[in-house]
Predict the 3D structure of the following.
Amino acid sequence: MARKAADHARVPNGLSQSAWLSHACDIGWQQLAQVGGSSERRFALILNLWCSPAHSTGNCMNPSEISTPRRTLLKGSSAAVFAAFAGPIAALASRTAQASACVPASASLLAASPYGPIAPVNDLVTGLPLIQLPAGFSYKSYGWTGDLMTDGLATPGNHDGMGVVRARKVGRSSEIVLVRNHERSTSTNAANIIGASRPSVAKHDTGITGTNYQVGGTSNIVFRDGNFVESYASFGGTYRNCAGGSSNWGSWLTNEEIRSNAVSST
């Protein structure tokens, strides 16, 4: 029965069973879990045991990365896994733009925009053509590096992840508060810590890590009815604040991008 199912699936490009499973990893187990029917989702769960979910491209795990339970499942069972799920994955592959082979998760397809072609558009604040937009769209820039914020401090550089943490009515106006990461690394000068001279600015660490201070952090920007109102430093003493997320209770989870076990002096 396993042989019949495998023959019926028609392995793309005549790949071996093990090579086919490795090739399937390139599609990405997360993508498989989101498309197709329940059979394809079941395959995604099996593929999760074979591929490393830590890699967004779905790269297959090295033998040393496979835990004992995973080894037990996979040992001598590649044919069974292949037979059980070859049909669903083959059906998924047939939907791709390249019918003869599985399309990697990194592949993309250009499509015409429903808003029409883009062209340079002048910023409503500076008058400079900073970005390109479809006809009828406009934008305003704010918070340039070095600009003085409302609290008198200079706007930190290396703008990165951001999110809205508050939306409320102020009189008849609508107001939002946006928290913005600054993916700054280190400095030998403690004065470069965001909000260093302001006790009101929360700080994670003001000590020395190695020979440097950590100068990443966040700033807050307030908009009312779509217009910039104010900005101020909100958090400092962190390292390379890259991504983050708005919580359900009106706060911002800022994430440091770091690969180090260095310990601060504090």
Summary: The mean pLDDT is 75.
